[in-house]
Design brief:
The complex is a heterodimer.
Chain A (H helix, E strand, L loop, with lengths): L6 E7 L18 E7 L3 E10 L4 E14 L26
Antiparallel strand pairs in A: 1-2, 2-3, 3-4
Chain B lengths: L4 E7 L17 H8 L2 E7 L5 H10 L3 H4 L8 H4 L6 H7 L3 E6 L36 E2 L5 E2 L3 E4 L10 H17 L5 E7 L6 E4 L32 H4 L2 H4 L12 H31 L6 E7 L4 E2 L5 E2 L5 H4 E7 L32 E8 L3 H8 L42
Parallel strand pairs in B: 1-7, 1-9, 2-13, 3-7, 6-8
Antiparallel strand pairs in B: 2-12, 4-5, 9-12, 10-11
Helix pairs in contact in B: 1-9, 6-9
Classes of the chains: A mainly beta, B alpha/beta.
């Protein structure tokens, strides 16, 4: 079912706010990882704490979230995450 | 029954700004022609929108959380696991594997060797003129030479009188000529540098995109609800002399709108320049009668933001930076085998008035991932598809974390086709 197909991507960040190395943080400076799951209907991203020594993401420590609906917001300009209170990261969607 | 050759074309920082992806502005007739003979994936995504992590991910068939490369500073065989790569797998299956240009990201992440000797049968080729890419070779309005972001050049004027991608195309064609007479199948990976910054391209391509026709991104402002952590402050382009001179405020800018349009103009011009290089390469494949025995895979390592959400460059999770072109030409499967003397990929000049409308090829709209490239190329070439990875898989040298996309290649109307490649 095309609706079940998911594409995952991720991006690291050194801090909650933009800083000089936000684009390309070195491993030791990565504090947050943004995990995105894409389906044909929506794009859902959670920015969670990340331990660069253990390579462990902590999905219960969510710094921020993004939720865009493809049909109504194809350019991803209207983040609906807070409207939906984020909710739990669907474990079934963890890559 | 002979093994099919493989030509893998990887374009640096190419977003889906191509005619075959519905872009109305960009002139990309040669890539569009490839698409018309291919299966094109409309919704293909990279695993991380930055060069080295994305390339190591799709070339090993593992996600970044397995390669443990999120920056540029580690070599997966030392740092995470001795994972096999696509070229290595083909090499172990009797192919002569060859690398031209930017396939692996240079430096630590590929062991300063493009992962030789594991991945390649011969030392990888890098164009000599690449060393001038970030030097002062851009003539500014003051008549002086600068290291600019926008760098349309007179090729006769630049050091060595050539550009890296031109040299890469020449080398790739030379290798095809050599491999033509080889008894072994070849796996040739060609990595083009443009449209990666700086936008250094033959200045005549600017004429294809008159500034008065260039619009801003449809959503050029930072969205109200965008979390600060999600925003990419495009620090790399700010280092370039022409951008630095604008004194743009950090982190949110904005870039002055006329310069935004110039960036977009130069990105599109770089894409059309890149398209001509792909055109020369594919028409040479035709001339060497290799088209009916060679699979062609065309993709990029990630996209590039052209002002959407007030952002530029890659470094984010937005669709504009993670969505990539992905298409496969498979002789006798995505297109009928060319008859003797027939050309599937004659060169098209982007300056010609819009040549006859190029028919779209076959398309798949399901969401797919670059990490699927490994199993899919193996399947199309008739090799054993590596097994699915267990979790974790650091100890596994050969397995895959992406889906095999072969099922999208079985078209009903070809079942009766006389030339179905079996």
């Amino acid at each position: 079912n095309p609706r079940e197909l998911i594409a995952y991507s991720q991006y690291p960040r050194p801090a909650d706010s933009p800083q000089w190395d936000s684009d390309k943080p070195s491993l030791k400076d990565i504090k947050i990882m943004g995990y995105s799951i894409r389906t044909i209907d929506y794009r859902y991203t959670v920015w969670v704490s990340f331990d660069p020594k253990e390579f462990q993401a902590n999905f219960s420590d969510i710094h921020a979230g993004e939720l865009y609906f493809v049909d109504s917001d194809p350019l991803q300009d209207h983040n609906m995450y807070n409207e939906t209170q984020g909710g739990e990261f669907p474990q079934s969607s963890v890559p | 029954t002979d093994a099919l050759n493989v030509l893998l074309i990887i374009v640096d920082d190419l977003r889906t700004s191509l005619g075959c992806y519905g872009d109305k502005i960009v002139r990309s007739p040669n890539i569009d022609q490839l698409a018309s003979n291919s299966l094109l994936f409309q919704n293909a995504f990279a695993q991380q929108a930055v060069c080295a992590p994305s390339r190591v991910s799709f070339l090993t068939g593992r996600r970044p959380d397995t390669t443990r490369l999120y920056d540029f500073n580690s070599y997966w065989r030392v740092h995470a696991g001795n994972f096999s790569t696509i070229p290595q797998y083909f090499k172990e299956n009797g192919y002569v594997t060859l690398s031209v240009g930017k396939v692996f990201h240079p430096g630590i992440s590929s062991n300063h060797s493009d992962d030789s000797p594991y991945s390649w049968s011969f030392p990888p080729y890098h164009p000599s003129s690449e060393k001038y890419e970030n030097t002062k070779t851009c003539r500014g309005q003051d008549g002086e030479l600068h290291a600019n972001l926008l760098c349309p050049v007179d090729v006769a004027d630049v050091p060595e009188g050539t550009l890296p991608d031109k040299q890469s195309t020449e080398e790739a064609i030379r290798l095809l000529e050599k491999m033509k007479t080889s008894a072994d199948p070849f796996f040739l990976a060609v990595g083009y540098h443009k449209p990666h910054i700086p936008f250094r391209y033959p200045k005549e391509f600017q004429k294809l995109y008159p500034l008065e026709n260039i619009t801003l991104a449809p959503d050029p402002h930072v969205p109200h609800g965008l979390p600060a952590v999600a925003y990419n402050p495009w620090m790399d382009i700010r280092q370039r002399e022409d951008v630095r001179a604008l004194n743009i405020s950090v982190p949110y800018g904005p870039i002055p709108v006329d310069f935004q349009r110039k960036i977009r103009q130069s990105y599109f011009a770089s894409v059309s320049y890149l398209d001509t290089q792909v055109g020369h390469l594919l028409s040479a494949l035709d001339d060497l009668q290799l088209t009916s025995s060679t699979i062609i895979a065309f993709t990029s390592d990630h996209g590039w933001a052209l002002g959407e959400h007030g952002e530029w460059a890659k470094y984010s999770n937005f669709d504009v930076t993670t969505r990539v072109p992905l298409m496969f030409y498979v002789p006798g499967m995505t297109a009928s085998l060319p008859k003797a003397g027939e050309k599937l990929f004659p060169y098209h000049d982007p300056f010609d008035p819009v040549s006859e409308l190029i028919e779209p090829g076959r398309r798949a709209t399901d969401l797919v991932e670059l990490v699927s490239l490994f199993p899919t190329l193996a399947a199309l070439a008739g090799l054993q598809v590596p097994p699915r990875c267990p979790r974790p898989s650091f100890h596994m040298e050969l397995c895959r974390e992406g889906r095999n996309l072969l099922k999208y290649f079985w078209f009903r109307d070809l079942e009766e086709g006389p030339d179905l490649y079996s």
